[in-house]
Design a protein that fits this description.
Elements lengths: L2 H13 L4 H13 L26 E7 L2 E8 L4 E9 L8 E2 L6 E4 L5 E3 L4 E3 L7 E3 L2 E5 H7 L3 E2 L24 E3 L14 E3 L3 H5 L9 E6 L4 E5 H7 L1 E6 L2 E8 L4 E6 L1 E2 L2 E2 L2 E8 L2 E6 L5 E3 L4 E4 L13 E4 H4 L8 E4 L40 E7 L2 E5 L4
Parallel strand pairs: 10-27, 14-25
Antiparallel strand pairs: 1-2, 2-3, 3-8, 4-5, 5-6, 6-7, 9-26, 11-20, 12-25, 13-14, 13-24, 15-16, 16-17, 18-19, 20-21, 21-22, 22-23, 26-27
Length: 394
């Protein structure tokens, strides 16, 4: 057994003796004594603190990074940050123009087609076709800067080398992999229920969800599905169907990152669960077919039989709940129900002040960068394992 696996099993053995709600705090004490899992700050160059302006504004930016051209859109009032390539998923090149005041349809092309905030054509010749998303990730600044060798913001590169390690078993540094809970101690939702957005319970209950709560949205030509993060805070993974397509929706409350994959590899369907392991404080999923581990933020299998496999991205976006009420045809909008069969108070965030305390990061990360507040939500556009970061201000 490798030293890394021995370390993880010692974590699991210890954590099995404490209650789930105390594991996060208990593990913090363990980590302080594990020199092998240090943050790596001793080897990192000192980064000067830069003023972090909090004046937000909407913007459209045509940009380029590592040879890739794309358009970035930011609408602060909707909680919306996104990046699209100027082409359809079938390879058709486009000339895109943005109209941020026309939510939820905010892009158009030279054919007169309109596209909504997820990039789906909703009128014109390209109705039903999908814009190509850039490989990108919305999440906390600290998680983006820790996960990728270079984080560019605003236009300057932090001069640091990529982490160097060797492991035939892992695609991430095993020294950054720790256990936050036992496998399946956080229960994925495998038979999720939904409630229509025009249901009387939502319309008449102003406490159903606050307008500024974040949600993740996917859609096809028939239905839009909404996954509130206040439910994913407790479950982290939803194995679901959108029409006849199998998808897995995941959210890591420790890094503020949500993503959606098609849940199959080489034509074989997969069901995912919460491994209880973290890398750079970020969720590692496992598939039940092979028990391989998958990095949520890096979007790849990093350990096990399927190591190196890259899941197919499924188009999605994150927005504020208040913006969902502006969507047309609310009878076709389904919201993940909090009637999950679990006795949780989904209105209570399970990690205390974690979201608002920039100094509170429970688990080791390989690198920290204080040019922005650690928990500020940003968009990282990722090309060649490097990230360029955008805020709700240009």
């Amino acid at each position: 057994m490798s030293p890394e696996r021995q370390l993880l099993e010692r974590h699991w053995l210890y954590l099995s003796t404490v209650s789930l709600q105390n594991r996060i705090l208990s593990l913090a004490l363990i980590i302080m004594s594990l020199s092998a899992c240090g943050s790596g700050d001793d080897d990192a160059p000192e980064i000067p603190t830069m003023p972090a302006a909090r004046e937000y504004n909407d913007y459209v930016l045509n940009d380029e990074f590592n040879g890739e051209n794309y358009i970035v859109l930011a609408i602060e009032s909707k909680g919306y940050l996104a990046a699209f390539k100027p082409q359809l998923t079938d390879g058709t090149s486009l000339m895109l123009e943005a109209d941020l005041d026309n939510w939820p349809n905010i892009l158009s092309d030279q054919s007169g087609s309109l596209y909504n905030f997820i990039g789906m054509g909703v009128s014109g010749p390209n109705t039903g076709k999908q814009l190509l998303h850039m490989n990108s990730q919305v999440g906390y600044w600290f998680s983006i800067s820790a996960a990728f060798p270079t984080a560019i913001y605003p236009e300057t590169v932090v001069n640091r080398s990529a982490p160097t390690f060797y492991s035939a078993e892992w695609n991430v540094d095993p020294k950054t992999v720790v256990s936050g809970a036992l496998r399946d101690a956080i229960s994925a939702l495998n038979t999720p229920g939904f409630i229509r957005a025009n249901d009387q319970r939502i319309i008449e209950n102003s406490d159903f969800m606050a307008p500024d709560e974040r949600v993740l949205v996917v859609q096809n030509s028939e239905v839009t599905k909404v996954y509130p993060y206040k439910i994913l805070d407790r479950h982290e993974i939803v194995n679901d169907l959108l029409g006849d397509e199998r998808i897995v929706v995941s959210y890591c409350p420790l890094t503020g990152t949500g993503t959606v994959w098609r849940s199959e590899v080489n034509g074989s369907p997969l069901e995912f669960g919460v491994s209880g392991l973290l890398s750079q404080s970020n969720l590692l999923l496992f598939d039940r077919a092979t028990e391989s581990l998958w990095s949520q933020i890096r979007k790849e299998a990093v350990y096990g039989e399927l190591k190196d496999a890259i899941p197919t991205h499924f188009p999605h976006q994150e927005v504020l709940w208040g913006s969902i009420q502006d969507l047309p045809n609310l009878e076709n909008v389904e919201v993940l129900s909090d009637n999950t069969g679990f006795d949780y108070d989904y209105d209570m965030f399970p990690y205390g002040d974690y979201r608002t305390d920039d100094n509170l990061i429970y688990f080791p990360i390989g690198y920290s960068d204080d040019r922005l507040p650690a928990k500020e939500i940003v968009l990282g556009v990722i090309v060649d394992e490097e990230a360029k970061v955008y805020r709700f201000s240009n």
